[in-house]
Write a structure and sequence with these properties.
Layout lengths: L7 E4 L2 E4 L31 H6 L5 H8 L3 H9 L6 E4 L9 H8 L8 E4 L7 H10 L5 E3 L8 H13 L10 E3 L8 H12 L4 H4 L7 E3 L2 E3 L11 E2 L6 E2 L7 H4 L42 H6 L12 H6 L11 H4 L12
Parallel strand pairs: 3-4, 4-5, 5-6
Antiparallel strand pairs: 1-2, 7-8, 9-10
Helix pairs in contact: 5-6, 6-7
The structure holds zinc ion (ZN) (5 copies).
């Protein structure tokens, strides 16, 4: 369940216009000088009771927005440790989140953080994340995808801390997501796997990864909860990256034959953005977004009215047009493509 703070919420007959986050986090709504209830939509003590019941279902942005609505809500949100045991920062807050703000948010769980997920949080430094890991022994899930301020060595240290404190009461790290980090060598990846697989995680290590196909830069289906680490050494180039399987029926049949399999990272095997099939020279069709499409996907997707090139569905969506309307692609309009891409390293 997710409620956009920019929409009007109607609860128990009370219309609440949740305000957008003050100056986009001003920052993150953690400014203690800003009193809760400023411009509140409610009279003191009149916060609709239903709002308290939806809190566990809201994301970070919604919680931070509601904090500013009334002092009652602010107290309820900040005082409930369970709301802060899973901290997930993604678009749009990720690019603005600073070290100090992350420390503030993580401290709300009072050392009981279980899941820390920081997607493309490019302003964060590794020392602060390491400090948070140290302060939260119960941390089981760590997602640092494309946090470019975090080195592979820092990830090693964090996993080591959690591994060494593992006990019957402390599970240690059971899930690590590090796609898009710099410097993860096959040796480092092996050390991470070894540490995470030891002792308590036997059952998880026995799980054979199911195939993941390529779909708009993401694995499809998504990496399962049981998989310890999202990346693996690419069978072709040995670089630690997401590895994709092939949707082409003849390639699928060869999945278990090491020298013939069509498995590899996005750099080793070009794949259709839409259906994940491997692209060979004859099958390639030119696109306005410079990504690969197979012939059949190219034929069905909308084309730019000027250059007659198709684009992948992600870029079509970014142009904010319907599938049937006439449009000009960014390059025909002389505009650089926006940052709509997936995480690549
Ligand atoms: Zn590769
Ligand atoms: Zn295709
Ligand atoms: Zn293939
Ligand atoms: Zn065009
Ligand atoms: Zn595209």
């Amino acid at each position: 369940m997710s409620i956009s703070p920019t929409k009007r919420l109607s609860m128990e007959g009370v219309d609440v216009e949740a305000r957008t986050i003050s100056s986009e986090l001003g920052n993150l709504g953690l400014d203690s000088s800003k009193e809760a209830g400023d411009g509140s939509s409610f009279l003191p003590g009149t916060t609709p009771e239903a709002l308290f019941y939806v809190l566990p279902y809201l994301g970070l942005k919604e919680l931070l927005t509601l904090e500013t609505v009334s002092s009652q809500l602010r107290e309820a949100i900040r005082g409930d440790v369970t709301l802060w045991q899973q901290l997930h920062v993604d678009v749009p807050l990720n690019r603005k989140l600073t070290d100090a703000e992350l420390v503030g948010l993580s401290s709300r769980s009072h050392g009981r953080l279980q899941s820390l997920s920081l997607i493309k949080c490019i302003r964060l430094s590794e020392s602060v994340i390491e400090h948070i890991v140290e302060a939260n022994p119960m941390l089981q899930k760590l997602n640092l995808s494309a946090c470019t301020g975090v080195s592979a060595e820092a990830v090693l240290r964090m996993v080591k801390i959690q591994t060494e404190r593992r006990s019957p009461h402390i599970p240690g790290l059971t899930q690590l997501r590090i796609r898009g980090l710099y410097g993860v060598t096959p040796e480092i990846l092996e050390s991470l796997q070894r540490m995470m697989q030891s002792e308590g995680n036997h059952s998880a290590s026995d799980v054979i990864p199911s195939p993941h196909y390529y779909k708009n830069g993401e694995p499809s289906p998504a990496i399962s909860e049981e998989q310890l680490i999202d990346i693996e050494a690419c069978p072709k180039c040995r670089t630690a990256r997401l590895v994709f399987d092939c949707t082409r029926p003849t390639c699928e049949q060869r999945r278990n034959i090491p020298l013939q399999q069509c498995r590899g990272c996005y750099l080793c095997i070009a794949r259709c953005e839409e259906c994940g099939v491997c692209i060979d020279g004859d099958d390639y069709e030119e696109t306005f977004c410079m990504e690969f499409l197979c012939q059949s996907c190219w034929l069905r997707l909308p084309k730019c009215s000027e250059c007659n090139r198709a684009g992948c569905s992600r870029h079509i969506e970014a142009l904010d047009i319907s599938e049937t309307s006439i449009f000009s692609c960014d390059s025909c309009q002389g505009v650089l493509p926006g940052d709509t891409g997936p995480i690549f390293d």
